[in-house]
């Protein structure tokens, strides 16, 4: 291991550089475990979009027509963001994941009800 301040070689278990006295930081090198537990950069976005998916899907039941399509689109976006985070082994918003699924399902049910009432 080398000192990040002066570049001199030192023992792997050293607490300080023998040349300049710079303390060795334990988190100087990223481990495999810490890279797997990084929070997604879209964590808050996933939650927000999931909640909005539910809101837009429910607005259809209140008489605002066609907004359930926005809810379906937002729910789909959340699921895509979460699946990308899962592949990259990042921490994703579980609330966003659940609300995205609920918003998507509510939108689909609104479509089914709309189609069945036409016949």
Protein model, in words:
- This protein is mostly helical.
- It folds into 2 domains: 1-30; 36-118.
- Helix content is 58%, strand content 0%.
- The protein contains 4 helices and no strands.
- The chain has helices at residues 32-36, 43-61, 68-87, 94-118.
- Helix 2 runs antiparallel to helix 3 (68-87), helix 2 packs parallel to helix 4 and helix 3 (68-87) runs antiparallel to helix 4.
- The termini are far apart.
Topology as H/E string? HHHH
Low-confidence parts lasting 5 or more residues at pLDDT below 50? Answer: 27-36
Taking all Cα atoms into account, the compactness measure Rg is 25 Å
Strand content: under 5%
Question: How many domain units?
Answer: 2
Largest sheet: none
Helix percentage range? 55-70%
Q: How many individual β-strands?
A: 0
Pfam families: Zn_Ribbon_1
Protein name: Zinc-ribbon domain-containing protein
Keywords: Membrane, Transmembrane, Transmembrane helix
Organism: Mariniplasma anaerobium
